[in-house]
Structure formats: structure tokens, C-alpha cells
What we know:
By secondary structure, this protein is α/β, with parallel strands linked by helices. It has 8 helices and 12 strands. It has 2 domains: 4-126, Rossmann fold; 132-222, Winged helix-like DNA-binding domain superfamily/Winged helix DNA-binding domain (Arc Repressor Mutant, subunit A, Orthogonal Bundle). The chain has helices spanning 12-23, 35-45, 61-69, 88-96, 109-126, 158-169, 177-185, 195-207, and strands at residues 4-8, 28-32, 49-52, 78-83, 101-104, 132-135, 138-141, 146-149, 152-155, 174-176, 212-215, 219-222. A 5-stranded parallel beta sheet has the order 2-1-3-4-5, sandwiched between helices. Strands 6-7-8-9 form a 4-stranded antiparallel beta sheet, with helices on one face. A 3-stranded antiparallel beta sheet has the order 10-12-11. Helix 3 links the parallel strand 3 (49-52) and strand 4 (78-83). Helix 2 runs parallel beside helix 3 and helix 6 (158-169) crosses helix 7. The longest helix has 18 residues, at 109-126.
Amino acid sequence: xxxSVLIVDDxxxxxxxxxxxxxxxxxxVYTAENGKKAVEMARLVIPTMILMDVMMPEMDGVxxxxxxxNDPLIHQPIIVFLTSRSEDYSQIAAFDAGGDxxxxxxxxxxxxxxxxxxxxxxxxxxxxxNQNSFNEDLYIDRDKFLVSIKGDEMYIPKKExxxxxxxxxxxxxxxxxxxxxxxxxxxxxxxxxxxxxxxIRKLREKLGDAYIRTIKGVGYTFSEK
Length: 225
């Protein structure tokens, strides 16, 4: 199926420039001028990826991302922030809302295309269709990015899901922080030191504290009990 990218930015010149370069690579491209419109388009066109600015009128990108991630009716896309905001707190807010990646402007078109391709490759490696994982009362559905815990079903952001799936793949194994960053985010992605901590905290808020253990100074492990 042809991959589609929803470009969300309030500056038309940037949208036109990005659309031209991304369409040249064979992607189907949709556009939106603000976060509110992005939410509407995510429901309507089911994009594979959303490439979104942070600062926009009516609704900013972080709020739009949060709404999309909490909407069970939206087939969850990859959400990548493309923005001139490079502060740590902006990146943390973006990941906290459910963003999968964060790219700083300006970026050359060819490099942006390579980043998009790398993100898709990582997602393909993580996806194993029609295979579900179980652990007592915890169940994950890879096809739907759905988690069921003691019968309660929930949809969680893609990066949180991929992190949980990695930890569950080998219960009891301690995954070092650099291993997690490499597998879940990729070596070609620069993320802040607190990125893993933010996602672990979000998972614990949803699943409780019993499943994921912190090994101080090393990393994290999934508890079988």
C-alpha cells in the first residue's frame, strides 16, 4: 500500500516546498495548516506518517498529537515533529504527547527524505503482523497497537508500544539504555537523555509499577510476575 504523509504547518511556502520534495519520492502527500485541521485529516485520510510543526495557530502540534494519540477511532500514524524549536523542554513535551521523532529545522530536503525512510525502516523492523504477545494478564496486539491489562483495553502511542514490546520480548533481560535508544529510536536519531525516562513513566502510569523494573545505572527490565 502506498505510504502517505500528512504535512502540518501554518507557513504555506514550507508546506509547498516539503510537499514537492516528498511527492518526488513517491509518497502520497496531504496537507493541513494547523493542529485542529491535522486531527480532522488524521481521521479522514488515515496517513501513514504525520510531519508536524509545533507552533501553529488555533491548535499547536503538541496538543494535536495528544488528541490523536488518545482517539481510539484514529488508525495511529507515525508522528514526527519538524520544527525550529530545539529547546529540551519542547522536545520532552513532544515525546510526552506521543511523538515518535523530533527533527529540527532547517534541514536539507535530501536529508529529510533519508530521515523519513529511516523512520519507516525502524517501524518495519518492529512490526510483526498477526503475532500477539502474552504475559499472564497483560496482552499486546501488534496489528492494532493495543494493550490489554486485566481485560481493560487501551491504545498507546507507537514509541511507548515499541518500548513495551521490546522489554516484553525477553522477560527478565536487562536492556541497557543505549540498547533501547538504538533499537526503538535508531542510531540516526538524536534524542534527549530523558526520552526513555518519559516513555517509561508514561507506561507505568498506564500499566502500574509492577511490570517494568529500573536497574539503577544500567537500564530496564520486564518482570514476569
